[in-house]
């Protein structure tokens, strides 16, 4: 459940932070942005919005790396059985199988 909460928070931040940066630059909330031309404000607000999204992603990755590992991962037995059957089917008959000798002779 904790993982889902972190994911939802990171997702919400990836939407809100860049929009807040764009809004702040376009409405002169950041010091010095009022003296810039409109093209420069648009350029810098876009660059900082992209950087802010990347910072949110990096923070999410760091928080995921700090999580303690779960106990022991057990593979699903049904999945393993299906995978082994699929591999056997793709490999075909084994070397000890008399039908494989017949196939070699043909």
Question: What features would you describe in this structure?
Answer:
The termini are far apart. The longest helix is centred in the middle third of the chain and has 29 residues, at 38-66. The chain has helices at residues 2-26, 38-66, 77-91, 98-105. The chain is mainly α. The chain is elongated and about 75 Å long. Helix 1 (2-26) runs antiparallel to helix 2. Helix content is 73%, strand content 0%. The protein is built from 4 helices and no strands.
Summarize the structure.
It comes from Salvia divinorum. This is Vacuolar ATPase assembly integral membrane protein VMA21 homolog. The protein is 73% helix and 0% strand.
Q: Summarize the helix and strand pattern as letters.
A: HHHH
Determine Rg (CA atoms, Å): 28 Å
The end-to-end span amounts to: 60 Å
Q: Can you count the helices? A: 4
Tally of DSSP β-strands: 0
In percent, how much strand structure appears in the residues? under 5%
**Quaternary structure state of the chains depicted:** single chain
pLDDT average, as an integer? 81
Biggest beta sheet summary:
none
**Uncertain runs:** none
Question: Outline, from the CA principal axes?
Answer: elongated
- What structural class do you assign from the helix and strand content? mainly alpha
* Share of residues in helices: over 70%
